[in-house]
Design a protein that fits this description.
This protein has 4 helices and 9 strands. With 150 residues, the chain is an alpha+beta fold. The chain has a single domain, classed as Small Protein B, Chain: A, CATH 2.40.280. It has a 7-stranded antiparallel beta sheet. A two-stranded antiparallel ribbon has the order 3-6. A hairpin with a 5-residue loop joins strand 4 and strand 5. The relative contact order is 0.23.
């Protein structure tokens, strides 16, 4: 069985990623099997803090595993695991600066499910256009330089 990584490609377009952090993810058995098959979605997902200060991911879809006896709820909140000082630091940044925690990808590290969170600031439509124009300009420059070398 190949271990698939699930990515949130839309996040890099919609948000400016300021910082990333890898945290653990609390899952049940059928969720692990589904994620290993790549049947999870991060579109529209975000991480938030509850009243007790714990970190949760909300809106992440993990498809039900067809061979499981007791399946999970595909859209349930899932607890994230991080050191308490990291959680305090993230919470401070989210509350003070108005930033958002967006899951960028889910992967397995040493057999343990991990999720990469991005501390993000939302982009406006003109920011997106500028980023696309910059990317296209860099591609044009690189192709010109490559053609000159040949």
């Amino acid at each position: 069985m190949t271990e698939a990584s699930v990515r949130n490609r839309r996040a890099r377009h919609d948000y400016e990623i300021l910082e990333t952090l890898e945290v653990g993810l609390v899952l049940v058995g059928s969720e692990v099997k589904s994620i290993r098959e790549g049947k999870a979605g991060l579109a529209g997902a975000y991480a938030s803090f509850d009243d007790s200060g714990e970190l949760w991911v909300v809106g992440m879809h993990v498809a039900e595993y067809p061979n499981a006896r007791d399946n999970h709820d595909p859209l349930r909140r899932r607890k994230l695991l991080a050191h308490s000082r990291e959680i305090i630091k993230l919470r401070r940044k989210v509350e003070e600066k108005g930033l958002t925690l967006i899951p960028l990808d889910i992967h397995f590290s040493g057999g343990v499910a991990k999720i990469t969170l991005g501390l993000c600031r939302g982009r406006r439509s003109w920011d997106k256009r500028e980023a696309i124009a910059r990317r296209e300009e860099n591609r044009r420059i690189e192709s010109t330089m490559k053609n000159r070398r040949d």
